[in-house]
Design brief:
There is one protein chain. With 186 residues, this protein is an alpha+beta fold. It is built from four helices and eleven strands. The strands form three sheets. The protein has a five-stranded mixed β-sheet with strand order 7-4-8-3-9. It has a three-stranded antiparallel β-sheet with strand order 1-11-2, covered by helices on one side. Strands 6-5-10 form a three-stranded antiparallel β-sheet, with no helix packed on it. A hairpin with a 2-residue loop joins strand 5 and strand 6.
Length: 186
Amino acid sequence: MPKRFPQISVSINLHDAVTDLIENNYDLAIRIQREMKSSSLIAKAFRSFNHYIVCSKSYYALHGPIENHEDLKQHNCLANSNAFTANRWQLSKNNKAYTHKFIARTEINNSNLIKKLVLDNVGIALLPEFLIEDEIQSGELVQILPDYQLKQATGWLIYPSKKFKRPVVSTFIEYFLQQTAGKHAT
């Protein structure tokens, strides 16, 4: 974007928490979640994301195999406290739905830290594919229950109504949606 729009400056604030855009004076947010709660904000879906239940190769060697959703009860499942369903993983197999409810001994509000803990053999986690695809490819992480399906999350571009939107924000939204078009779009 800087080459195409040199007159625009961008300030990026990265965190996993859901923030009030108007109260915090943000022009827009990018959120990845399974459900979009109704609000006065405009939300445009731009991409879908797969999630996987994973553990480290070492953890699997020590504690595996994990063959069905009931086996998850025997493991330390790490929860993302920012997720609307932090301690409930919804899975399905052969058109039958299952919910794995658990009391998290470890609850973290940052996906990158959860990934680090999984790599350090602390437990099992539900993480987005884009965050773990390299580690799955290299074999550092093992996908648990690959024959189960997990509900996809959607990437949302969220911004206040037109009366609060600056023209430069409209330009960014148009550019962002062009750049993400066709990439697992929903």
